[in-house]
């Protein structure tokens, strides 16, 4: 059996972990909202029409934060059309996803839903088609106690108290050519616009935090667009927003599970940009990161050619101008439209999403917010009738419970490695080759108040179980509490409402600890939590 060594010591401190690292993202795509969290005909529907079964599931998870209401969708949305009596609201075309937005669930309903599920709301402001005045009125409506037109309108609409919104996202993926009102060709202008709106947000609420919308089009103009834009607003914003969706060729498990290497490169480059600008501008402020959209999938090979900056996608470079049926989908709140989330690749998806969270923990000194795109609808799975837990739920839940009150510790890992091959699926989905990637990936949390150490481990080896020698001698007086593992012998199977326990965690009773060393076997393609207590 192949062997690996992991060394953990309390002196290898990174930072305290912000609970918002385990947040989620919500956007009205398909039936995420209409027919999903909102269905007035569902047996559990409450007074507004929210599904109580989903609310209960989110409360059970104890979701710390939620970024909403978009997403690409928000760049064409006028929040003012979504407040007041429903019969007076304006339905509108959603040019991001070619839907008809009825505005039944609007500004106040989104915020009420976050209250009912017990999570911190983090609000995205439209910087695509709306202006500084619209943003100012939005924040005034949301946060000002009363005595002005917009705050009194909120009170008139049945919400006497200001909403507890602390964090404001200033636009969404505004460098993207796919974005409504894109600033792709004017990064300096976008930086100036961000600066001015950040000022206004903080002048209305001096406790507010603001987030700059960083580069999401990594293969066209990263990092120069980000550098040019962020330089204009560095002094007034608190976070830089990162988004990335990792696609790997179908069946290429090595590239699929090497998501952490891709994210590491992206994170380190973004940190370097921030620290360079800090020095250039002679500003002592440290910029933090909100990684508020992320996901992984297998993708099919598209048509590409080699261009100036890597591969250029022939078929989709100007996808938004391609001929299509001029039809906008109208979603029925009482009818659920199924999506890509199903039972396929659930174990691999769980490992990849866990890998992203381990990467965040290893950068907890700079990454303070994380929002899993599939947190609501994939990990906390639901369809038109039922709610259940997909495989990705369990690592997400365990880290949310065990890591959010602790100190991140940097583990040192040595052992079997694997290589990946370069690929280019499209102009947007491409990746270089990586060599000598550790099959065992780890992150560690020390909770001093609980006298507890949690070691999170992934075995990314496709064929080999790996025996791990875990050196924890630095944690004197601690003993092994448990080893929880999760794996599947059939990667094509997954959880569903009818069969909810196909993949779930179980106790590994064979793990031992002696003289400050833990010996454990991590099964191939498995998730592991080894917990020590004093």
UniProtKB/TrEMBL annotation:
EC numbers for this chain: 3.2.1.55
InterPro entries assigned: Alpha-L-AF_C, ASD1_cat, GH, Glyco_hydro_b
Keywords, ordered alphabetically: Carbohydrate metabolism, Glycosidase, Hydrolase
Highest taxon of source: Bacteria
Stated name of the protein: non-reducing end alpha-L-arabinofuranosidase
Biological or metabolic pathway of the protein: Glycan metabolism
Subunit structure: Homohexamer; trimer of dimers.
Catalytic activity from the UniProt record: Hydrolysis of terminal non-reducing alpha-L-arabinofuranoside residues in alpha-L-arabinosides
Membrane-spanning ranges: none
One MF annotation (Gene Ontology) recorded for this entry: alpha-L-arabinofuranosidase activity
Family: Belongs to the glycosyl hydrolase 51 family.
Enzyme class label: hydrolase
Organism encoding this protein: Lederbergia wuyishanensis
Residue stretches making up the Alpha-L-arabinofuranosidase C-terminal domain: 292-526
SMART domains in alphabetical order: Alpha-L-AF_C
Pfam families given in the database record: Alpha-L-AF_C, ASD1_dom
């Amino acid at each position: 059996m192949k062997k690996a060594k992991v060394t953990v010591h309390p002196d290898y401190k990174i930072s305290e972990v912000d609970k918002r690292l385990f947040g989620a993202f919500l956007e009205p795509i398909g039936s995420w909202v209409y027919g999903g969290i909102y269905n007035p005909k569902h047996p559990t529907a409450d007074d507004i029409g929210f599904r109580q079964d989903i609310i209960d599931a989110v409360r059970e998870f104890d979701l710390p934060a939620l970024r909403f209401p978009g997403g690409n969708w928000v760049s064409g949305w006028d929040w003012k059309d979504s407040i007041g009596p429903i019969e007076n609201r304006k339905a509108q075309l959603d040019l991001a996803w070619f839907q008809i937005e009825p505005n039944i669930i609007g500004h106040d309903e989104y915020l009420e839903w976050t209250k009912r599920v017990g999570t911190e709301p983090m609000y995205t402001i439209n910087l695509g088609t709306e202006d500084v005045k619209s943003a100012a009125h939005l924040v005034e409506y949301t946060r000002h106690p009363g005595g002005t037109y917009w705050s009194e309108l909120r009170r008139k609409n049945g919400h006497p108290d200001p909403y507890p919104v602390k964090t404001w996202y200033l636009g969404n993926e505004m460098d993207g050519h796919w974005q409504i009102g894109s600033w792709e060709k004017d990064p300096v202008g976008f930086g100036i616009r961000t600066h001015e709106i950040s000022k206004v947000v903080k002048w209305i609420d001096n406790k507010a935090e603001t987030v700059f919308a960083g580069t999401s089009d990594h293969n066209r103009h990263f990092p120069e667009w980000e550098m040019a834009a962020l330089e204009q607003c560095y002094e007034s914003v608190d976070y830089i927003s990162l988004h990335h969706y990792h696609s790997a060729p179908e069946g290429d498990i090595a590239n699929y599970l090497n998501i952490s290497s891709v994210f590491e490169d992206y994170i380190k480059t973004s940190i370097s940009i921030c620290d360079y600008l800090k020095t250039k501008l002679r500003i002592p402020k440290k910029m933090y990161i909100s990684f508020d959209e992320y996901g992984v999938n297998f993708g099919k090979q598209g048509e590409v050619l080699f261009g100036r900056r890597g591969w250029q996608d022939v078929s989709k470079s100007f996808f938004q101008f391609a001929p299509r049926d001029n039809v906008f989908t109208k979603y029925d709140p009482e009818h659920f439209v199924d999506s890509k989330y199903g039972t396929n690749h659930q174990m691999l998806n769980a490992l990849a999403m866990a890998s992203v969270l381990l990467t965040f923990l290893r950068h907890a000194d700079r990454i303070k917010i994380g929002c899993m795109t599939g947190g609501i609808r994939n990990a906390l799975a639901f369809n038109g009738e039922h709610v259940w837990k997909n495989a990705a739920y369990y690592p997400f839940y365990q880290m949310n419970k065990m890591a959010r009150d602790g100190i991140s510790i940097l583990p040192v890992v040595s052992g079997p490695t694997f290589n990946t091959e370069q690929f280019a699926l499209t102009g947007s989905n491409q990746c270089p080759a990586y060599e000598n990637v550790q099959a065992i990936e780890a992150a560690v949390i020390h909770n001093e108040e609980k006298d507890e150490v949690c070691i999170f481990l992934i075995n990314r080896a496709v064929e080999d179980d790996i025996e791990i020698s875990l050196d924890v001698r630095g944690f004197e007086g601690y003993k092994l509490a448990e080893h929880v593992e999760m794996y599947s012998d059939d990667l094509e199977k997954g959880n569903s409402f009818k069969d909810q326990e196909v993949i779930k965690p179980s106790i590994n009773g064979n793990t031992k600890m002696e003289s400050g060393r833990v010996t454990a076997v991590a099964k191939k393609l498995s998730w592991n939590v080894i917990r020590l207590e004093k």
